[in-house]
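Entry 12.
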Amino acid sequence: MDLSNLVAVSGLSGLYKMAGNRKNGLVLENIDTGKKNFYASRKHQFTPLESISIYTTDEGVELSEVFNIMKEQFDTNPPISPKSDSFELRAYFAEVLPKHDEDKVYISDIKKLIKWYGFLAERDMLVEKEVTEEENEEDTATDAVEDAEVVTE
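Predicted 3D structure (tokens):
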């Protein structure tokens, strides 16, 4: 799942695509309308979705992986309303990610995650990232280098 250009902006609902970068803010594109606007960094905080991880008892899980789990469980465990009470939200998220750290993952985080999932699902943006032939060749070359033995004399 490719979340690389998606950004959450403090004070604004929904998610935005990053269209440009300025030293004092970002140019963001509204996903629904395609309209681009400048948002100043002194007024807003920007969070790229690809940089978000969910705390677990072992190590963090990337947001894209959590979205994949939610998508896989959609038929058996559909997302609940973000307006549900905290016990229902915690129970739902415990089924999605059983090892999440309950002390570090707040109910507000779960609500936001469910809202983002719904937003992206409505717009068919929860598709797997296609691997291009060039990326596949780079991975193969990297694997070959890692598998090579180092010989010193």
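Annotation: The chain has four helices and seven strands. The chain has two domains: 6-49, 52-122.
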